[in-house]
Amino acid sequence: MKKFNLFKEIIVADKEELFEALKSDKIFGIRVDGAICYEPFGAHDVLIFSGSTEIKSSLEEALGKNYQIVEDEERVLIKAASNWQEIIGFNKARATYDDTTADGVDELGTQEMEVIGWHATEFNINYRTLVEVLEQECSGTLLCIEYEEPYRFSGLGFVDDLDKARDVLFAFCKKEIERLIETDDDFKKESLSDDEKEAAEFFGVAI
Fold first, then answer.
1. Domain locations in the chain?
2. Where does residue 124 fall: left (phi above 0), alpha (psi -120 to 50 degrees), or beta otherwise?
């Protein structure tokens, strides 16, 4: 997955398209790639702005005080880091996972992946591990705020192909559970609990 750190990134939008959206009276969005889109937003619409507004005295006033705007001929350059809390709100429902709270990731974005995560926990495979697998193995966008000193991270993950993500997680968990049963004394075949046996069977692991 590609990390899109709003603390560092500048979003570049087409000025004419942005003004058309402002005049449209429709709810529109500005994606991380600068493209303008309209409701209903799809799973791949990772937005840095969402709303219905109007042209005012300036683009800064139209989009809101938390956006830094620079107009450059046909382009509008936007920094959106200061609006992070609002950005979480209008993206969260479409995200594959939410890593914006101190509690970390506790849910995955589809029922199929959630069932995988639920069974994986029987073998101490947590959601953080599963998210790291998604970030390494799947294409998509990690929309985040990341400061290095002092370190601070908050992010939303958007996987491009949810079916592939499901298959990647399933294969990882199966392989890891097979390894644990083979090497970890806490998960020997003869000492597995009923829930652990059920989880192993879910992943097609021979017990």
1. 2-90, 96-202
2. left
